[in-house]
Design goal:
308 residues, alpha/beta, Leucine-rich repeat, LRR (right-handed beta-alpha superhelix), 14-stranded mixed sheet, 26% strand, binds 2-acetamido-2-deoxy-beta-D-glucopyranose
Length: 308
C-alpha cells in the first residue's frame, strides 16, 4: 500500500505544541509528518538535551541535531523512542558521553566532530549499533565503554589514541570494520582485534604488525607508519589485501614480501589515505648497494612524503 508523506516546515511556535515540554532554545525546522513526526532536525543552537526533551514520538525514526553547539545530552533525553534508528549528533561540542544516554538499538549513531575526551564506562551497552561514528574527537584512551553490544562498523579515526589493549574491543560482537587512521598508536597488544573484514591503521606510529597474532583479515591498511620490515611472514598469509605504502621499507625485506605475496596471492598497494601518487616512485628506503649520501637523500625525501 502506498502511504503519502507530507513534508511541512513549521514555525517554532507550532513545534512547541508538537513536542511537549521542549526547553528554551531547541529549534526545529524540518518535520516530515503524517499525523506524527518521523524525522526531526534542529535548526539552531541546542545547548543541553534535558531529560524528556522528546516524548510521545512513537514514529520518529531519525533525529538530527548537528552544528548546534550542543554541549551535553542527558540520559532519558528521549522517552520511549520505539522507531528511532538514526541519531546524528555530529559537529557539536559534546565532551563526554554518559552511560544510559543511548539505550535503543540503532543503525547509525553519529558522534563525530565533537570534543569527546571521555566516555563513561558501559556507555555503549546492551544494544545493537550497525555504524558507530566517533571520528574527529579528542579521544586518547578507550576504557570499558562496551558491554554486551553488537557493532558492525566502528570509526575512531582522527583522535589521539596511543595504544590498544587485548580487551579494548573484546566485548563487541559482530565487528566487521574498524577505522583507526590518524591517531598516535604506537603499541597494540597481540590479538586485540577479532577476525574482521577491514582494519584501517594508516597514519600512526607502528613499527610492525605483530599485534595481529591469529587475527584473520580481508583488508589491512598500514600506510604512513614506521614499518621497515615484517618480522613474521606467517601473519601475512591471513590477509587478502595489504595496503603497505608508504612506509620506510627496507628494500630487501620488501623483495621477500613480494615473493610471498605472489606465492600466496596476497594483493598489495597504496594506503587509502595516499593521495599524492604522482609525487613518488619511492617504494623502499634502504638497500644494500646505496651509499650513505644517497641513503640520506632518500630518507629526507621519504620523510617529506610521509609527514607532509
Ligand atoms: C528557529 O528557526 C527559525 C527558522 O530557521 C528562525 O526564524 C527562528 O528565529 C529560530 N528560533 C529560535 C528561537 O532560535
Ligand atoms: C550527519 O550530519 C552531518 C552534518 O549535518 C552530515 O554532514 C552527515 O552527512 C550526516 N550523516 C548521516 C549519516 O546522515
Ligand atoms: C544484551 O543486549 C541485548 C540487546 O542487544 C538484550 O536484549 C539482552 O538482554 C542483553 N543481555 C544481557 C545479559 O544484559
Ligand atoms: C584535547 O585533549 C588535550 C588533553 O588530552 C587538551 O590539551 C586539548 O586542549 C584538547 N583539545 C580539544 C580540541 O579539546
Amino acid at each position: 500500500m502506498l502511504k503519502a508523506v507530507l513534508v511541512v516546515t513549521l514555525p517554532f511556535v507550532a513545534e512547541i505544541s508538537t513536542f511537549s515540554n521542549t526547553r528554551s532554545n531547541l529549534n526545529t525546522s524540518t518535520i516530515e509528518c503524517g499525523s506524527d513526526v518521523y524525522f526531526l532536525r534542529a535548526a539552531s543552537s541546542v545547548n543541553i538535551l534535558q531529560k524528556n526533551t522528546f516524548r510521545s514520538m512513537e514514529n520518529l525514526y531519525r533525529l538530527d541535531i548537528t552544528d548546534c553547539y550542543m554541549r551535553e545530552v542527558r540520559p532519558g533525553f528521549i522517552r520511549n523512542p520505539k522507531s528511532l534508528i538514526v541519531i546524528n549528533f555530529s559537529r557539536n561540542r559534546l565532551s563526554t558521553i554518559r552511560a544510559g544516554v543511548f539505550v535503543k538499538s540503532l543503525t547509525s549513531l553519529l558522534l563525530n566532530n565533537n570534543d569527546l575526551e571521555s566516555i563513561e564506562e558501559n556507555a555503549f551497552s546492551n544494544i545493537f549499533i550497525e555504524y558507530l561514528e566517533l571520528s574527529t574527537n579528542n579521544i586518547s584512551t578507550i576504557e570499558n565503554w562496551f558491554r554486551n553490544v553488537t557493532i558492525l562498523r566502528l570509526h575512531l579515526n582522527n583522535n589521539q589514541i596511543t595504544s590498544l589493549r587485548k580487551d579494548t574491543f573484546r566485548e563487541i560482537r559482530g565487528l566487521e570494520d574498524i577505522y583507526l587512521d590518524n591517531n598516535r598508536i604506537q603499541y597494540i597488544e597481540v590479538n586485540t582485534f577479532p577476525n574482521m573484514k577491514e582494519l584501517h591503521l594508516a597514519r600512526n606510529y607502528l613499527y610492525n604488525i605483530d599485534f595481529l597474532g591469529r587475527t584473520v583479515l580481508e583488508t589491512l591498511d598500514i600506510g604512513f607508519n614506521r614499518i621497515s620490515c615484517f618480522r613474521s611472514f606467517v601473519i601475512l598469509t591471513k590477509i587478502k589485501r595489504l595496503l603497505i605504502y608508504p612506509n620506510p621499507w627496507n628494500c630487501n625485506c620488501l623483495l621477500g614480501f613480494w615473493k610471498l605475496a605472489w606465492r600466496y596471492g596476497i594483493g598489495y598497494g597504496d594506503s587509502q589515505l595516499f593521495q599524492q601518487k604522482s609525487d613518488t616512485n619511492l617504494i623502499c628506503l634502504v638497500a644494500e648497494h646505496i651509499d650513505e649520501q644517497d641513503k640520506k637523500l632518500h630518507e629526507e625525501n621519504f620523510m617529506r612524503i610521509l609527514y607532509n
